[in-house]
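Quick start: read one record
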Amino acid sequence: MTGKADVSNIVSSEPTAAATRAAPQRDLCIDRLRSVMTALVLLHHTAITYGAAGGWFYNELYPSAAPSSILLTLFCATNQAYFMGFFFLLAGYFTSSSLERKGYARFLGDRFLRLGLPLLAFIFILGPLSAAIVAAHDGKGFWGVFPYLWNHVIFINGPMWFVQALLMFCLGYCAWRAAFGTPLNQSARTPSPIPSYARWLLSAIIVGVISLAIRQIVPVGKNVFGLQLGYFAPYIFLFAIGIAAWRYDWLRHLQWRQARPWVFTLIAAWPLLPLSIVISIRVFGPGKANFGGGHTWPAIFYAFWDPFVAWCLIAAWVLIARAYMNKPSQFWSWLKRRRSAV
């Protein structure tokens, strides 16, 4: 574990029947959602440091059957189900309009500048430095880490895996758009009804199936070029949903009546995870159940649990943010200015 829908206020102009290519205004609630998710990222990795399951530079305590470890693991599992996918959805929401406004060359140049340079800075400076600090703490020496990483061609992207993945998604979208999409100068926003609950349900099942299939090859916890591909089915799907949400103006029109069935789904689905953990400890022993891949029931359950929890939490956060986090605030502005650095 490491790892992104607004509603009536994301676009401040009144809806019209005619399609429009105007870039959406950034509502305050979007930036505040990103600040909240960033805070959750910090808490997520702190929980891993103190006993939750997951990968991080340093562990003060390791996962165990202790109640504190189980609670922290549940916290991280819930975060992992939705918060990085939410980041990708919000990124996708602004990708299409940015591309159409800037064109391919300027858009990609901007992406490489804003995403590529911080990624390289972490890979060549902050990542090795973090590993060296941990090695020194463990009594293995500080300076020896740098030649070891270089000689073994080990690159540490750490939490910057997100910008690495986002850069790849942007490149993929540009390639798809150039080959199959509408020309940039001919595209338009066309408001469309929110997809039905049946479509949300079908998408959760499909994402679960794809996640399970990927995890047969790349289980959760295994990195490929610094990326945990076992989680990427919902990431890619939600990035695409973000693009579609801007195109069809879904976020503006999302209401509680569309999200309410998923609230009941969450109430039914979430408690199954702690129950499955308790049962797996009794059946397989502490730390021996494989939730990350394979054909065991814990792996199958976890692959489907993720999207069923995520769809509700993402929709709920958007609606809550629009209702309560969309007014001017010095505190939120202070957080926004520091979010990227954090």
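The chain has a mean pLDDT of 88.
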